[in-house]
Amino acid sequence: MWSYSLKRAATTAVTLLAASVIIFAFIHIVPGDPIYVLLGDTATPDQIDALRHQLGLDQPIVLQYLTWIGHVTEGNLGRSIFFQAPVLSVIADGAETSALLATMTMIWVTLIGVPIGMIAAVRHGTWLDQGLSGAAMLMASIPTFWVGLYLILIFAAWLGWFPSSGYPSIFEGGIVNLRYLVLPSLALAAPNAALILRLTRASMLDVSREDYVRTARAKGIRPWQVVTRHILRNALLAVVSAFGFTFAALLSEAVVTETVFALPGIGRLVVQSILRRDYPVIQGVILVIVVVYLLVNLIVDLSYRLLDPRVELQ
Amino acid sequence: MSRDGAIFWLKPFIARPIALMGLGILLATVLAATFAPWLAPYDPYAIDPSIRLTPPNALHWFGTDQFGRDTLSRAIQSARMALLIGSGVVMFALVTGVPIGVLSALFPRLGHVLMRMVDVLMAFPSLLLALGLIVVLGPSVVNAILAIGLGYMTTTTRIVYGLTLRLRTETYVEASRSMGAGTAWLIGKHILPNLVSPLLVQASFVFAFAQLGAASLDFLGLGAPPEIPSWGNMLAESRTFITRAPWLLFFPGMMIVATAFSLNLVGDALRDRLDPRFRQLLGEKG
User: Fold this and answer.
1) Transmembrane ranges (chain B) (predicted)?
2) What confidence score (pLDDT) does residue B145 get?
3) Of A1, A216, A249, A289, which has the fewest beta carbons less than 10 angstroms from its beta carbon?
4) Is residue A162 domain-shared with residue A238, that is, in the same domain?
């Protein structure tokens, strides 16, 4: 277990290091000199030289990278051009919304995907299974922002059950503010729940062909007990590992969902920063998301290994 | 493809009416894109303020938008952009993914380096990767194809890599090698022909998810320029009018769903015809 964990952690570290080079390079390959972007068109040559020196852009590129990575490990991700504030604090402002949105979405994904996938697997081959599997494929084919716009139209504009946009912090307005996240999290959950549904179904069907399931049935254990104790428990292992990439898909799709619902999260921050050409913020968000994504995958892999010791590092 | 080959691939569609429907919708989309100028009842760009935001009626089946443009005509015209983006992304993914995957599997030392690089790219969630690339390249149709394609290049490379690793150990490949066959000959004679079927399946999934990716980019205003009709652009414009003109939201969205769903159905049906050993490498995530 320990050697596996160490190896897996080392791979993550190497990947992260390589990704950091790409993220660092990003700010150097965006069109235009970052200095002009920072200072605007009206800067004098003296100002340009001063800032170039201050930012260390006159240093060799390798040294610039080392300086940057040094700052990053201290939590210094640079300054936002638009907000005139540290990038980290700009990102931190959006973190509450995005974290809550992601958590609520994962709850929907689990509550919808796993039980329905289970039903489809138990009723394998029937019209019910075909209907549910078809519905899942349909769900995965719908753009999340379209679902979002429809949820706004029906549940906010017509029925008035939920607010259509924005999110005031629960620390200011209390837990009831979570209602602002109901529609966005449902929109975001739709395609991911479909994915988990199909995965739960497929992995339950796989497990149900195992010898120990046949043995359990032959021993005369009640069919529903075979399903819950023998099949489901083992099938869920594969589903657990899928939560990692579901989470990644979710980070991506949140960009669109947060824009549709005008949520003050990290996703909308990326889109707005792109439109504002606030490159340090874009760079910072990409870095934070990649770190979160790699860490989540590491945790998922390690817990998977803890649940199923047979897994070997590929 | 021989006649027997065609029958082999058509079988799952005959057995499953819903997959046949998917194939039908796809065919309709291709026809709509090809004959758009003749099929569209109106000029998709013609502005007529006197009929702005009219609900669907006998003259304008899908209604009109805020400029009085005919939504049906614009939806038909947009099929071109959908096919362009989809085939562009598939081509990019295949042209880059196949050589990298095959060579990585055949030359382990090179493969070790290349596959690690693919892993690094996969550390970036796909839409985020696309957005980053759009920032560097600027928004345009070609850049949208590259940005979305890069995300599928990685998955395609991994699939090709996995398939080639398996093919390499097949008895006939080893026999051929032991009789002195060169690497180029092996690739041309044994590897590539065996990759065609699984890649056909992969291509239909990539095509499907490229539709969703392109729609997202268009919706964010970072895909095709707003003057080009595309389903994503139509939805982006409809956003302001969703309560006044819900039909503007409905029809372009249905087009995206119909296209992506059909491609998924077709991919799913084709997957059932694959060698079972290859099937597990091709998930629906593309």
Assistant:
1) 20-40, 81-106, 118-138, 144-161, 199-225, 245-267
2) 94
3) A1
4) yes
Give the tokens for residue A283. 């760079």
Q: What is the ipTM of this complex?
A: 0.83
A-B Cβ pairs (cutoff 8 Å, strict): 128
Using CB atoms, which residue from A14, A152, A252 is nearest to B128?
Answer: A252
B216 and A143 within 8 Å at the Cβ level: the answer is yes
Q: B119 CB near a chain A CB, below 8 Å?
A: yes
Give residue-wise pLDDT tens across range A42-89: 777 787 787 777 767 777 888 888 888 888 888 888 888 788 889 898
Q: Decide if A231 contacts A204 (C-beta within 8 A).
A: yes
* Inter-chain CB proximity B126 and A275 less than 8 Å: no
pLDDT score, position B283: 54
Return the structure tokens found at A227: 């399903």
Q: Which of A12, A37, A141 to mutate to test the interface with B (most CBs of B within 10 A)?
A: A141
Residues A65 and A108 occupy one common structural domain: no
CB contact B110 to A (< 8 Å): no
Q: Answer whether B61 touches A (CB < 8 Å).
A: no
Q: Is residue A254 assigned to a domain? A: yes
| Cβ distance of B127 and A252 shorter than 8 Å | yes
CA distance to partner chain A, nearest, from residue B212 (Å): 6
Q: CB of B284 within 8 Å of any CB in chain A?
A: yes
- Which domains are seen in chain B, by residue range? 10-44+56-282 (1.10.3720.10)
Give me the pLDDT at residue B160, please.
Answer: 93
Taking the complete model, does pTM exceed 0.90, yes or no?
no
Q: Are the beta carbons of A31 and B265 separated by less than 8 Å?
A: no
The residue behind tokens 């999110």 is A167
Query: Rounded mean pLDDT of chain A?
Result: 84
Q: Which two tokens stand for residue A26?
A: 């990003």
- Decide: B82 and B214 in contact? Cβ < 8 Å: yes
CA B19 to chain centre: 17
Closest by Cα among B59, B34, B259 to A146: B259
Q: What SS3 class is residue B209?
A: helix
Closest residue of A to B138, CA-based?
A31
pLDDT tens-place string over residues A160-199: 888 888 887 777 877 777 888 889 999 999 988 998 898 8
Residue B281 has pLDDT above 60, yes or no: yes
**pLDDT beyond 50 at B51:** yes
* Helices and strands, number each (H, E), in chain B: 13, 0
Using one digit for the tens of pLDDT, what is the confidence trace for B199-257? 988 899 999 999 999 999 999 888 888 888 899 889 988 888 888 888 888 888 999 99
CATH number at residue A258: 1.10.3720.10
Distance between CA B165 and CA B178 in Å, rounded? 17
